[in-house]
Amino acid sequence: MKVIRIYCENGALTSKVKKLKEIKDIKLLYFPFENYTKKANRSNSPSLLTCDNTFVTADDDRIIISDTLPSEAFIKIENIVGRKNFNDIRHIDTAYKEKCQIFISPDKGDIINKSDKLEKITGMKFFYCDDFDSINNEIEKLRHEE
After folding, report:
1. Between the CA of residue 129 and those of 60, 63, 105, what are the distances in Å?
2. Least confident interval from 67-71, 90-94, 122-126, 127-131
3. Is pLDDT of 35 > 70?
4. Distance (Å, rounded) from C-alpha 45 to C-alpha 93?
5. Between residues 129 and 52, which one has the greater pLDDT?
6. What are the b/e assignments for 35-52, b being 16+ CB within 10 Å?
7. Which of 19, 76, 79, 95 lies 20 to 30 Å from 47 when distance is taken between CA atoms?
8. How many angstroms separate the CA atoms of 42 and 19, rounded?
C-alpha cells in the first residue's frame, strides 16, 4: 500500500482534514514553526530550523541537525513566496524534503495563489484547507497512480 504524504500548514487542520489522519494510507505531517499540535505527525526534517524555535529544544533526539538544512529548492521557493514569509518558505521546503504529494494551507495570498509556480518546483499539489472536495479528489487520484 502506497502512503500518501500530506503536509498541513498551521491553521490548515480543519475538522475534515484532521479526520484524514485516521485513514491507513495517509500520513499527515507538519512542523511546529509557529504552533504545536497532536493532530498530525511532526516532521523530523524541518527546513532551516533556527535556535529561536520554541517548540524544539537542544536535547530533542528526534532531529539530527544536518536534517534541518534547506533543500536545493529553498531559494526558488523563497523567490516565489517572498523572503518576508520565512515560515511559509520553511513549511513548503519541509514538505518538499518529506516528499509530500499534497500541501494544505489556510494562506491564499502567499501560497495558494502561487500554487502553479510552487507545484512546478516541488511537484506537490497545493490546496486551500476549506477546499476539501479538491483535496479528496487528489487523494483518490494518487491512490490510482502506480
Report:
1. 30, 28, 5
2. 67-71
3. no
4. 10
5. 129
6. eeeeebebbbbbbbbeee
7. 19
8. 16
- Contact by Cβ (8 Å): 102, 15: no
Spatial strand order of the sheet with 125-128 comes to: 41-42, 26-30, 4-8, 102-105, 125-128
Which element (helix H / strand E) includes 75? helix 74-81
Better-predicted residue by pLDDT, 143 or 11: 143
| Domain residue extents for the chain | 4-49+67-143
Task: Please name which of 7, 59, 10 lies closest in space to residue 37, comparing C-alpha atoms.
Answer: 10
- Name residue, grid cell 500554487: 115
**Interacting residues of 4 by C-beta distance below 8 A, sequence separation 6+:** 25, 26, 27, 101, 102, 139, 142, 143
Q: Which helix (H) or strand (E) holds 76?
A: helix 74-81
Question: Which grid coordinates belong to 91?
Answer: 513549511
**pTM of the full structure:** 0.84
Cβ–Cβ < 8 Å for 37, 30 = yes
Among 1-10, 29-38, 51-60, 84-93, the least confident range? 51-60
